[in-house]
Amino acid sequence: MRLRVVLFSFLLMSVFAAVPTAAQTKGDDEEIRVETELIEVPIVVTDKTGKPLLDLKKNNFTVLEDGKPQDITNFSATNEPFEVALLLDTSGSTLAELPLIRRAAQNFIASLRPGDRVSIIAFRAQREAGKANAVSEIVVPLTDDRSLLDRSLERVQTSFGTPYYDSLIQVTERIFRDPPGERFRGRRAVVALTDGVDSTSVSDFDETKELLEKTGAAVYFIKIDTQDFFEENLLGDCTSSKRFSLSQLRRYYRKFVTSAKAEKTTNFCDLGDFERLAISKKLYELADSEMGQLAKTSGGKVFPIGDLSEARAAFKRVADEIGTKYSLGYYSSNEKRDGSFRKIQVQVKGMPPGSLVRAREGYTARLN
């Protein structure tokens, strides 16, 4: 009898061992794999006064993709930790304000919760072939060591340009390159102190937006108003005034001067004062639009400030919001890998009248 049981158990184990789990085999050498992608959605829910609602549960939430309900497989409440990529725009005009930037960033980090991990990205000058270039630098990778972060802030330098797009690309390719651990799923954020006006990047906005979207991170901007300061120093003698970079002039003509017959120049000294102001206005409008797009589609927000003296208070508001974010994840019922944009809508039950929901607005599906 015992021998029969052993033989039956062996046969049963053999049957189950033959059933594929991660993949199914068809024929001798053809393998069919089912690939799934977890879609992560950070969410903020507030009442009509803007106060966060903190006690919501998984069953309060419904998520729709292109109007179709999805099964929520992951849910994190507001007390779960976050991973934050902190980008500090330290271009040349901030040289005198660098200590203020460091203190504001230090206060921001201190106001985060234990367990939150932070990486710091800034700009610095680099000389190649006798020429100074601005480059983006990861000052410290993700860590929850507050002492290390404080020491790293002291190493933050300034640059002679603004590689803003390149720095955001670094966030996607290095800081958030790998999928998050279980504790941080759907709980990543980019926080950027900047005016958003790029001057030296190799990358462009469309590439930056696409890569940021894939990380699922909420993007926040503390937007510094530098336009008046820049334009005050833009006029007059072209040899001593501030000037547009070559990449800025090319971006301006590409975006705003589409006629082939229009007169174009990349020589700053050929531009009159009126034309310089017109170009500056358009570049700042473009930066505002791009920051708004990144924040809105990711479920983040833009916090405008007049000057760096207001940065500390703005950082506090960002930290408060990060600490009140929910996050959920789902596997799309649409299994097509067609590169199409999928619209996400989050609905919340049991909220008081006038409440607001801010969440990631969509994603682009992978291509086969």
What can you tell me about this protein's structure?
- The chain has about 375 residues and is α/β, with parallel strands linked by helices.
- The protein has two domains: about 80 residues, no CATH class; about 240 residues, 3-Layer(aba) Sandwich (Rossmann fold), CATH 3.40.50.
- Helix content is about 30%, strand content about 25%.
- The chain contains nine helices and 16 strands.
- The strands form four sheets. Strands 9-8-7-10-11-12 form a six-stranded mixed β-sheet, sandwiched between helices. Strands 6-13-3-15 form a four-stranded antiparallel β-sheet.
- The longest helix has 26 residues.
Throw out a few tags for this protein.
alpha/beta, Rossmann fold, 2 domains, four-stranded antiparallel sheet, 9 helices, globular
Summary, kept brief:
32% of the residues lie in helices and 27% in strands. The protein has 368 residues and is α/β, with parallel strands linked by helices. The protein has 2 domains: 33-77 and 326-364, no CATH class; 83-322, 3-Layer(aba) Sandwich (Rossmann fold), CATH 3.40.50.410.
Radius of gyration: 25 Å
Taking the sheet with the most strands, its summary is: 6 strands, mixed
Strand order of the largest sheet: 9-8-7-10-11-12
Question: How many domains is the backbone divided into?
Answer: 2
Distance between the termini: 54 Å
- H and E string: HEEEEEEEHEEHHEHEHHHEHEEEE
Instruction: Please identify the top-level CATH class of the largest domain.
Output: Alpha Beta
Please report the total strand number as a whole number.
16
Derived from helix and strand composition plus strand pairing, the structural class reads alpha/beta
Average residue pLDDT = 87
- In the CATH scheme, what's the topology name of the largest domain? Rossmann fold
**CATH architecture tag of the largest domain:** 3-Layer(aba) Sandwich
What is the name of the CATH superfamily of the largest domain?
Answer: von Willebrand factor, type A domain
Proportion of strand residues: 25-35%
Low-pLDDT parts are: 1-34
| Helix content, binned percent | 25-40%
Overall geometric form? globular
Number of helices: 9
